[in-house]
Design goal:
Layout lengths: L1 H28 L4 H14 L18 H14 L2 H24 L3 H11 L3 H6 L6 H21 L2 H17 L4 H15 L3 H11 L1 H13 L6 H7 L5 H18 L1 H15 L3 H20 L10 H13 L4 H14 L3 H4 L15 H5 L5 H4 L5 H7 L9 E5 L3 H8 L3 E5 L30 H7 L7 H15 L5 H10 L13 H4 L7 E6 L19 E3 L2 E11 L3 E7 L3 E7 L4 E7 L11 E3 L5 E7 L7 E10 L4 E7 L2
Parallel strand pairs: 1-2, 3-5
Antiparallel strand pairs: 4-12, 5-11, 6-10, 6-12, 7-8, 7-11, 9-10
Helix pairs in contact: 1-4, 2-3, 2-22, 3-4, 4-5, 4-7, 5-16, 5-17, 7-8, 7-9, 7-16, 8-9, 8-10, 8-11, 9-15, 13-14, 13-15, 14-15, 14-16, 14-17, 15-16, 24-25
């Protein structure tokens, strides 16, 4: 009785030590990345009744992890603070991972603590165990699948096999590519259990119900069986050789900056292949996943994709009695002796390394860390609570990098055209521009696409692309339940997007504006009284950084004059749309230029200058007017703009 009490006390003490170390590591290094913020915007829209969408009014799945998305949504509803809920969920799930690995998977206590020590010194795990991304739930579902596989092999009953299939289904919902990791394990368990065919099929169908249900929901609601991100990354046009070459750079980056991770994975696979059949199946799954990482070219986030095979390798080492003692201890010594300087942050590493691979956590730390960020975005709730359920956006922006946080800051009435196509249904199906950074596959934006989104109509110039976009709009914007939409979904499943070379995109090929985004603005938004001489960054002004604006008129507008107030020390170019493209009108500013004296109504004073310039009579009526900052101090703003 006394020995049992001692064993229980020791076990509780061990759990406490593991929990304390894991929580310390999680809280100290926790952060939220921009890609995670893309999912969090979808969580907000879902929680406030606008559906699981990134842009209100358009059904697009901009996340790859349905299970993680649903858990984040539940966490937000319970906690009430968006970022705090994401942090707490990451902490909780990662804590379960540490406890299961050390106290359930590990054959002995020392092996579990060795595994924990390696986790706490592997930079990949430290960076992504609490980043807002789906890595924690991937780790947890994989460990559960392994434990249920062991149970199914031992019991050999239909119920135990069904539970194992259910865990595999949850792995798929955590990330679809985890199917590669569990496939060899599923094959092995199926051969060992040897159920009669009717029982086997029933267990598979029942266990796979979550994945099947999500697939059906995705097809009906979004119109496609896979996330939009899958289409965005499969339509890049990158050759196999170039992709594999980029993948090799991804492996090299991890080997240089985080040798603990790849060393552990390698040893785990070797030990697994030399051990029991179940360990061989786990090792084969990890190796298959490494091949997949190589094939897709890795990622721009250094180490992110290596955490899954790392967990599998540690599970193999921790549960394997034969030879694991010296191997795990040796790896622990290796990990403790090599703690990357970027983990302890005692010196700033080069953030963007060769070939577009970056230390994402270090880039966002400490501004996006748990200790400094979680109270942020409480005001977002106010934006949503005051929002009428109107699918028409008031402002439209084009964005690639920084999409997540910029979209959260902007609020729900901003529609973001994602030029990297992760959240855009049309651009995801067009070929990527050459020489794009890994994970940032920029697309050429078709003429009138931004206006089409803003006006909620198909105004594309290219005829073939316009017909294609008509069908796509039916799927993503049309009535959810209709025969026309159902027929379009079926027809679209095997449909290939039209070839769309950049040469057929006049708006995006003008050299002066090819890399500049434009924000669509209602003309009425700028029809206010002049703010002559006021501060350039006054709250009522339209402040623009790194982009131009596209003033949209309710109908064809015959321009007579341009009456506007602009930041007085900057130069702005004005262009009008003639139905085929944008044509030069004239420049205004800076106010100090001698040629501007004839157009000045009032000098800039503290910031804004008031200009009034007559438009040549030969300029035809137009529906849009572009204003492009083209010189100055990079602080640009507009106080008002009228055309009469």
């Amino acid at each position: 009785m006394q020995s049992a009490s001692i064993r229980l006390s020791s076990r509780l003490l061990g759990c406490g030590v593991v929990a304390g170390l894991a929580l310390w590591q999680l809280i100290f290094f926790a952060w939220i990345g921009d890609d995670a913020a893309i999912t969090l915007r979808t969580v907000l829209n879902f929680a406030w009744g606008f559906g699981p969408v990134f842009n209100i009014g358009e059904r697009v799945q901009a996340y790859t992890h349905p299970l993680w998305f649903l858990l984040l949504s539940l966490s937000y509803l319970l906690v009430g603070n968006l970022l705090l809920s994401a942090f707490l969920l990451s902490f909780l799930v990662s804590l379960f991972v540490a406890l299961i690995l050390t106290h359930v998977v590990a054959a002995r206590a020392w092996a579990g603590f060795c595994a924990l020590g390696i986790l706490l010194t592997a930079k990949s795990y430290i960076d992504y165990s609490a980043s807002g991304l789906e890595n924690p739930i991937s780790h947890l579902t994989l460990l559960c699948a392994m434990l249920l596989a062991l149970r199914a092999c031992r019991l050999k009953t239909a119920g135990s096999y069904r539970n194992f299939v259910l865990s595999c289904s949850l792995c798929y919902l955590s990330r679809a590519d985890l199917a590669l990791v569990v496939a060899p394990l599923a094959l092995y368990v199926t051969l060992v259990v040897r159920l009669p065919r009717p029982s086997l099929l029933k267990a598979i169908v029942v266990g796979a119900l979550p994945a099947l249900a999500w697939g059906a929901f995705s097809l009906v609601y979004y119109g496609f069986p896979f996330p939009n991100t899958a289409y965005a990354k499969l339509s890049t046009g990158v050759s196999l050789s170039d992709s594999v070459r980029q993948g090799l750079y991804y492996f090299k980056d991890s080997l240089v900056t985080d040798p603990v991770t790849l060393a552990t994975i390698t040893c785990g696979i070797i030990v697994g292949l030399l051990s029991s059949p179940l360990d061989r199946a786990l090792a084969a799954g990890a190796a298959l996943y490494l091949a997949y990482i190589l094939r897709i070219g890795g990622d721009f986030m250094s180490g992110r994709f290596f955490t899954v095979p790392l967990i599998v390798a540690l599970a193999i080492l921790a549960r394997n009695r034969f030879g694991s003692r010296w191997l795990a201890a040796g790896l622990l010594i290796c990990g403790v002796s090599y703690i990357p300087s970027s983990v302890l942050m005692n010196e700033k590493q080069r953030l963007l390394r060769d070939h577009g691979i970056a230390d994402e956590r270090l880039f966002y730390f400490p501004e996006r860390a748990f200790r400094t960020q979680y109270p942020e975005f409480d005001e977002v709730d106010g934006q949503y609570s005051a929002l009428a359920k109107d699918s028409r956006p008031t402002r439209v922006m084009m964005q690639c990098g920084g999409l997540g946080y910029n979209s959260l800051r902007a609020g729900p009435k901003f529609y973001f055209i994602d030029q990297c196509a992760l959240a855009d249904p049309l651009l995801a199906r067009l070929p990527a521009l050459p020489n794009a950074r890994i994970g940032h596959w920029m697309r050429a934006v078709p003429t009138n696409y931004q206006y089409s989104v803003y006006a909620n109509q198909n105004a594309l110039v290219d005829e073939e692309l316009r017909r294609y976009y008509d069908d796509l709009r039916t799927i993503t914007r049309g009535p959810l339940v209709s025969l026309a939409r159902l027929m379009t979904i079926v027809r679209f499943l095997g449909k290939k997007a039209p070839d769309f070379p950049q040469g057929r995109n006049p708006e995006n090929t003008q050299p002066r504006t090819s890399n500049l985004a434009y924000e669509a603005i209602d003309a009425a938004r700028l029809e206010a009284s002049p703010k002559d001489g006021g501060p350039w960054d006054a709250p009522e002004n339209l402040v623009i950084y790194g982009h131009g604006i596209e003033v949209v008129f309710p109908g064809p507008e015959k321009l007579s004059v341009i009456d506007t107030s602009l930041d007085g020390n900057d130069l702005y170019r004005f262009e009008y749309f003639d139905g085929a493209g944008f044509r030069d009108l004239f420049n205004l500013g800076p106010a100090s230029a001698p040629e501007m004296a004839q157009y000045l109504v009032k000098p800039p004073g503290m910031g804004l200058a008031h200009y009034r310039r007559t438009v040549p009579s030969e300029v035809p009526a137009t529906t849009r007017l572009r204003v492009t900052p083209s010189g100055g101090d990079s602080n640009f703003s507009i106080g008002h703009l009228t055309t009469r």
